[in-house]
Design goal:
With 330 residues, this protein is of the alpha/beta class. The protein folds into 2 domains: 128 residues, Rossmann fold (3-Layer(aba) Sandwich); 180 residues, 3-Layer(aba) Sandwich (Rossmann fold), CATH 3.40.50. 36% of the residues lie in helices and 14% in strands. Helix 1 runs parallel beside helix 12 and helix 5 crosses helix 8.
Length: 330
């Protein structure tokens, strides 16, 4: 009896080099839609799922062949870990490979806010040269400011390195471990960091502890001209409190790449502020990072299909159940 070709379901198209890496190992199929019902249906006969969109827990109940859910990136909040583990499905990710892309986005956003790019661009186009140039009188330099980094994983460390060595910023950070301190980074409590920083950058994962971390009370502690940059996850910030602070001009501005509900509705209040930069969850997406994430996810898929465990296994407690499901694996 002919052996069935493994099915590799990806929620999104992969970088051409990642697709080429998978060629011959299985049939790469791109999901036709991203709603829970479609993903669940199309994963029923899949051996691997490569993840760039939230997976419903029900997907793991009916996917009898599924060996692994592999995150195309680092954050695991798109994968229901309990459901995957209970089903004996391995979960892996590709950590750190988009850190540089996110860190560069953070510096771009900080500079754009300090140089009032949205106002300058709008008035230059609509009112002419002098109207756009007038904003320059209130522009602010980046050098010498204090940047506070919440979460010192790969992204936070990349932000800190560029900030300290490239822009002469004072770098402070808060993180769960507080150990060890990278060069030119000082540790503070979250409240002290919020109070002392000119630029606050959220790089932390979404966990029960970080949900609502930037609360009404902490926003009230921010400096009047402070900037908030969020490249972590939307629910880390209390949206209502941030919108209120922006309306009352109690902070300098914000750059938001992630939101509690995505896509962000076109009539959302954030779009109404000149001192808010909105981007569609793209801080970590560049041609280079997409190649690195895609190749990394493809490499993990190949390991699993070869009967091995992924390098970046994130639910080792599922291994015993997994091996009972696939007893012929090495």
């Amino acid at each position: 009896m002919a052996q069935t070709v493994p099915k590799i379901l990806s929620t999104h198209p992969l970088h051409p080099r990642a697709s080429a890496k998978l060629a011959g190992a299985g049939q790469l199929v791109i999901a036709s839609a991203l709603d829970p019902a479609t993903l669940t249906r199309e994963a029923k006969d899949a051996d691997i799922v490569i993840v760039r969109a939230p997976l419903p827990p029900a997907l793991f109940e009916g996917a009898w062949k599924l060996r692994a859910a592999i995150r195309h990136g680092a954050g695991l909040d798109m994968i229901p870990m309990e459901a995957a583990t209970a089903a004996g499905v391995l979960v892996a990710n590709v950590p750190a490979v988009n850190a540089r892309s996110v860190a560069e986005h953070v510096m771009f956003a900080a500079l754009a806010l300090l140089r009032q790019f949205r106002r300058v661009d709008r008035d230059l186009r609509a009112k002419g040269w002098l109207a756009g140039r007038e904003h320059a009188n209130a522009n602010i330099e980046l050098a010498g400011k204090t940047i506070g980094i919440v979460g010192l994983g790969a992204v936070g460390q990349a932000v800190g390195h560029i900030a300290a060595h490239g822009f002469d910023l004072k770098v402070v950070a808060t993180t769960r471990s507080m150990q060890p301190a990278p060069e030119k980074v000082g540790f503070l409590s979250i409240d002290a960091l919020v109070e002392q920083s000119d630029i606050i950058v959220l790089c932390c994962p979404l966990t029960p502890e970080t949900r609502g971390l930037i609360s009404r009370e902490r926003i009230a502690r921010m400096k009047p001209n402070a900037l908030l940059i969020n490249v972590s996850r939307g629910p880390v910030v209390d949206d209502d409190a941030l919108i209120e602070a922006l309306r009352e001009r109690r902070i300098g501005g914000a750059a938001l790449d992630v939101f509690s509900t995505q896509p962000l509705q076109s009539n959302h209040p954030y779009f109404g502020f000149d001192n808010v930069i909105i981007t569609p969850h793209m801080a970590g997406i560049t041609e280079e990072s997409m190649m690195r994430m895609g190749i990394g996810a493809a490499g993990e898929a190949l390991l699993v299909l070869a009967g091995k465990l992924p390098v970046n296994l994130r639910n080792p407690e599922a291994v015993d159940h997994y091996r009972r499901r696939f007893p012929l694996d090495l």
